[in-house]
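Re: the multi-chain job from yesterday

Posting the exact lines I submitted so nobody has to dig through the queue logs.
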Amino acid sequence: MTPSATAPPAAARRSRRRGLTQRLLDTPLADALAGPHNVDHYLELLRPGWAVKRIRGEIVDVRHQNEDSVTLTLRPTVTWPGFLAGQHVEITVEVDGVRHRRCYSPSGSADIRARTIELTVRTHPEGVVSQHLKRNAHVGMFVGLSMPIGDEFVLPRPRPGRIVLISGGSGITPVLAMLRTLTDEGYGGEVVFLHYARTAGDLLYADDLAAVEAAHPNVTVLRAYTRAGQDGDLAGHLTREHLRVALPADRDAAAFVCGPGALVEAVRQIWAEDELTTPLRYEHFAPPELPEIDPDQLGRITFAQSGQAVEATGRSLLEQAEQAGLSPTHGCRMGICQSCKCKLEHGRVRDTLTGDIYGAPGEEIRICVSAAVGDVTLDL
Amino acid sequence: MNPVTTPNETTETPAEATFVPALDPSTPLSPSAPDREASAAARRAARTDAGERRRIDPSRRVADAPLSAVPHLSQDDLDAFGREMERIRAKHVADLGERDATYIRKVIKAQRRLEIGGRIALELGFIPPFWLAGVAALSASKILDNMEIGHNVMHGQYDWMQDEELNGRTFEWDTACPADQWRHSHNYMHHTHTNIVGKDRDVGYGILRMSDDQPWEPYFLGNPVYASLLALLFEYGVALHDLEVEDARYGRWDWKARLPMMQAIWHKVRRQAGKDYLLFPALAGPFFPVVLAGNATANVVRNLWTFSIIFCGHFPDGVEEFTVEETAEETRGGWYVRQLLGSSNLTGGKLFHVMSGNLSFQIEHHLFPDIPAHRYAEISDEVREVCERYGLQYNGGPLPYQLFTVARKIVRLAWPTGAEADAFVASETGGRLAKTVVRTLRGATRAVRAAV
Ligand SMILES: Cc1cc2nc3c(=O)[nH]c(=O)nc-3n(C[C@H](O)[C@H](O)[C@H](O)COP(=O)(O)OP(=O)(O)OC[C@H]3O[C@@H](n4cnc5c(N)ncnc54)[C@H](O)[C@@H]3O)c2cc1C
Ligand code: FES
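And the result, structure tokens for all chains:
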């Protein structure tokens, strides 16, 4: 999580927005009175919309643009510093008692006057968080928020003379934020917004795009539908011809692409083949990969902090770390005291007591009763 | 949940070829190594005989029973008992979810309400009913914070929720003991070495004589006095626990090595005392002493309550102690049986269990320290049923009676039996002390004679 380049202006805005009470709550005295807990620990109960340390957002609007997406408007606590168009935020939601963290790109304007965060979440068939939000998001619900993240996929300053924004499916969110930010700040350059959807019915933000197009003569919206027989500006998946329609070829331009891996790849390939000089920035929303595991495979254990790696032997990760010369904190060595818990960065492990295979990136595991299954990286 | 199980991954794994057990099957378990029976074959057996239900005649005697407290159980029986416990555990781990999250959040909410209410009432404590209500609410808040929330969260019972506020490794509680030190002395030392005299430092907290197996010495004449002080100042007793100050009695306490720990304790104590005895009283202006007295009372109430619950967990009559020798070769099954025999439950209503952090189900807590404690009530039915079949004692009783037996033990062990007194005189320290006493007496007599 990078606090991002927004820090100085955001901080100024933040103190303006915070009343005296909230400023008093963010003092060492308040910390001492609340200790050993966090002031927010109590605020959550007294004033759910307030926070002085953590960032949370209250859902103030829920919109279902189509069958497989949900659009949320969040009102963040004053601790939210604002974001740059194109950045994303990690939100935390609880599903069946377990907190899950997922990245979403705000699609609203990053203009200083915008006090809300708009997110559009496309549902995945088995997606834990997207399905939960589609079904259960309601006004008044709170979600956890991270600081805004990302410093590559953002609009450069000073603004380039021409900008082309290419997106597919839910990848529309960060580039729509860019479009809305540009129009809000009265950007005078030319903007081309090329978006791919399966059908006109699948097109997210259809009305908003039409409104922007009508109000801003410098904005061209190109709607491309990938399914045959649709009445769009362009048809089929991205081709060189599509790009030629959209692309400004001079150096004082910038191009952004966000969408499915295939779209991003196609764009990058054409860029490379045609040796285009327009700076291209891209992003894609790949969910974290779960490694395919073969239970018989032992693999390699990497200790990330110490930069060591050993071949797995099937013994406990604690023993293997010790054999590699590390001395991880531990106690009972039998799975009860939790002293040895350590973050699993990658891979899956076997519980040596039950034989169960488990583990997800970021999960804390007891290394005294876990053995590697396939390649494993530990935060040790 | 955690661990996530995919059925076909666990049952159809041809693990034999590649899965090397944590240790060679013949290596003993506790406390430095995992499992003698953790071989792939044993694990598979454990899984396939899910229906295994042994019934054992408690009056029979087996030739080389590993635990003297249960002469009717063989090593194989202990391991079978362990497998039955593992099955109960697996069932509850697989079921963790919404229900547990809702429960702990509800308790946390109640604790916050009580704390906020209590603090406000105490600021108005110059009106006597407010003072009383404030003390009651703040005591209850601290008890909940320390027991049902702090103690249980720090066991990692809610780690699967992935909520950083409920993470067992980072949680900090409203008491003098720094959470990090407690995690070591309690989660590791006490839960691994439960009731092994000489290893489990919770046996007497290093300052009391709680077992016949601790050799008597004159210091222990003060047993009832130390116990009363410990009860009143329990939070500080717990805070100093990990320093092993009792070693100072034998002149082998290395204060330099323990300096960082002392600093951490000092830091935490200062913050706790600063909040309760300076800042909150100061907010009341002229009524400073009123708030101070209220906060101090709440802390003492909490101390007495936690002391009572905790001492009734392992020291009432009927609870077994173990020797280092009989547990040296212990397997996981043996460990389970020791947890059972070394603990004792308290009976009571629902509110009582919540206020004791469900440590009233001390047995279930020791068997399954990382399962959310609010489940212990239902787990206890399952455990009791297994105990009945194995002819194993399941200790428990109401708090007042259990407390009485603990007090009786504290007083009884203060005074040596004839044999214990003889043993002390015969010992090196005892001998030296006896000589000193005799010499002093002789010297005094001589001086008196000379004077006369
Ligand atoms: C920088 C960034 C920005 C993003 N912005 C947005 C945005 O604006 N809008 C948006 O909708 N999304 C966005 N995403 C994607 C988002 O973070 C989530 O990945 C997405 O919503 C899916 O989350 P989920 O919990 O619903 O699905 P998950 O539960 O994470 O599952 C994801 C997919 O994997 C499959 N899957 C899950 N478990 C398994 C398994 N064991 N084996 C095989 N397949 C499995 C599921 O079927 C599903 O299709 C962004 C991602 C990134 C990295
Ligand atoms: S060392 Fe105790 S749980 Fe791993």
